[in-house]
Design a protein that fits this description.
The chain has 150 residues and is of the alpha+beta class. The chain has 2 domains: 43 residues, Winged helix-like DNA-binding domain superfamily/Winged helix DNA-binding domain (Arc Repressor Mutant, subunit A), CATH 1.10.10.10; 68 residues, Alpha-Beta Plaits, CATH 3.30.70. The chain is 38% helix and 19% strand. It is built from 5 helices and 4 strands. A 4-stranded antiparallel beta sheet has the order 2-3-1-4. A hairpin with a 5-residue loop joins strand 2 and strand 3. The N and C termini lie close together (9 Å). 12% of the residues are buried.
C-alpha cells in the first residue's frame, strides 16, 4: 500500500482507515465501518490517535475553483531568496498549495485567478517584490485528486 512509507508505526487497519478517509474525508463512522470492518469505537479511537500523532494534520475540502469563478489555474516554478518569497506568498489569497524544495531556494506552487489580468498583475508584482532568479509557469488544463485503487 502507498501509505506504508510513513515513519510512525502503524498496522494494516490504520492504513485501511487512512485510505478510506483519503477516498472521502466525509464518510460517516458507519461508512468507515463498512470499508474497514472495524468497530465504531475502534474507528473513533484510531482517528483520534492519528490526529494526536500528527499523521492526520487536518480535514479539508477540495474546491472546484472553476465553478467558484476562478477560471485560470497556473502552476509555478520559482527560484528566489526564501525570505522575500515567503513574505510575498503569505499575503496571496490566490495560492492554494506551496511546495518548498529541500534547498529552500526553489519551490513549486499553484494559484487560481478569475482573469488573465489578475494573473498578469500577480506575476508582475511577484517579479517586482521577490525578484526571482528563475520563474516559469504553466496553465493547468485539468487536475484531479488521485485516490489509490484497492
Amino acid at each position: 500500500m502507498w501509505l506504508q512509507n510513513l515513519v510512525i508505526s502503524m498496522n494494516e487497519k490504520d492504513f485501511l482507515l487512512l485510505e478510506a478517509l483519503r477516498e472521502n474525508g466525509k464518510y460517516s463512522l458507519k461508512q468507515l465501518q463498512e470499508k474497514t470492518n472495524l468497530s465504531l469505537s475502534a474507528i473513533s479511537k484510531k482517528i483520534q490517535r492519528l490526529y494526536t500523532q500528527g499523521i492526520i494534520r487536518k480535514a479539508t475540502v477540495l474546491i472546484d475553483w472553476k465553478k467558484a469563478g476562478y477560471l485560470i489555474h497556473l502552476f509555478f516554478s520559482v527560484e528566489a531568496e526564501q525570505k522575500n518569497f515567503q513574505q510575498f506568498i503569505d499575503m496571496q489569497k490566490c495560492v492554494s498549495a506551496l511546495f518548498i524544495l529541500k534547498d529552500e531556494k526553489r519551490c513549486f506552487f499553484e494559484a487560481y485567478f478569475s482573469s488573465g489580468a489578475e494573473a498578469d498583475k500577480f506575476i508582475t508584482e511577484m517579479e517586482e517584490k521577490v525578484k526571482p532568479t528563475s520563474l516559469y509557469f504553466w496553465e493547468v488544463e485539468n487536475s484531479k485528486k488521485i485516490v489509490p485503487d484497492d
